[in-house]
Amino acid sequence: MNFSVIEPYAPMFASGLAVTLEVTGAALVLAFALGFLIAVLKVLPCKPLRIVLDFYTSIFRGIPLIVLLFIAYFATPQLTGYKISMFAASVLTLGLNGSATVSETVRPYHLMMWEIIIPQALRSVAPALVNEVITVLKSSSLVATIGLMDMMRAAQSVQALTYRAFEPFIAVAAIYYVIVMVLVAVSRRLERRLKQN
Questions:
Q1: pLDDT tens digits for range 16-71
Q2: Could you please report the per-residue DSSP string of 121-153?
Q3: How far is the C-alpha of 14 from the C-alpha of 146, rounded, in Å?
Q4: pTM of the complete model
Q5: Helices marked H in 42-113
Q6: d(CA 79, CA 53)
Q7: Domains defined for the chain, CATH in brackets
């Protein structure tokens, strides 16, 4: 092991981390906004709408994320004639996939009880939502497969330049680990605070 060989590539890792966090942040905004909307729409007394939304949820829960990512990035231009950017394909895939999970996690039972149900629901589902943040963050490493220069892609580039795989991938694993452990600590603190309230 010789981690000094990857030191000159620190800016590449930093740039990759920035892209990872941008993709994760944008995907989470989409996931939470759409997930909450779907959860609310599912309680409306409209059976056809519920069937459509249940089908939507089953698609994103039943198909591997990497397949959805490849469909978004490689198949969309074939169908529409519009070339979607790697960033947009990544955010859309992770966001839509996340929205399916969020919509199942957050399920208020009556729109008329919005003021009562939502605060109570947030108390009980907050830890699950933080877990979704962690899941989206870790899943963002898949965007390297379509060429987006995130942390994984940076590690692959460093591997190609240095002919060493262990150091760059361990460095990326360590960065992900630290971020996830920070999120876990935030989740536990949030859970304790919500229980006290």
A1: 999 999 999 999 999 999 999 998 898 888 899 999 999 999 998 888 899 999 99
A2: HHHHHHHHHHHHHHHHHHHGGGGGGGT--SHHH
A3: 19
A4: 0.81
A5: 47-62, 65-70, 76-80, 86-105
A6: 23
A7: 8-196 (1.10.3720.10)
